[in-house]
């Protein structure tokens, strides 16, 4: 694929075809890493390890067990 670098606001942009990206398993809103290796631009998909609230509560069944936790006797000048 031959592409032309174009002005994009105050930057320069390069459009990549849908076919090229889908051949690499890259789609809209996927995160990619862009490096320079041996004077070449290398783009590759990175895994999104961002922790999502829905993942944190995936196994939550709507109940909790509130109660006191015994941390032992005071050891300093704590005031209870």
Give an overview in words.
The chain has about 80 residues and is an alpha+beta fold. The protein has helices at about 20-25, 55, and strands spanning about 5-10, 10-15, 30-35, 40-45. The longest helix has 6 residues, at about 20-25. The termini are far apart. The mean pLDDT is about 85.
Mean pLDDT: 87
Count every beta strand, where a strand is a DSSP E run of 2 or more residues.
4
| Helical amount | 10-25%
Gross morphology = elongated
* Beta-strand percent range: 15-25%
Question: Which regions have little confidence, pLDDT < 50, spanning 5+ residues?
Answer: none
Radius of gyration, taken over Cα atoms and rounded to an integer in Å:
25 Å
Q: Identify the strand order in the major beta sheet.
A: 1-2
How many helices? Answer: 2
Question: Which structural category do the helix and sheet elements fall into?
Answer: alpha+beta
How would you characterize the largest beta sheet?
2 strands, antiparallel
Distance between the termini: 71 Å
State the order of secondary-structure elements, H for helix, E for strand. EEHEEH
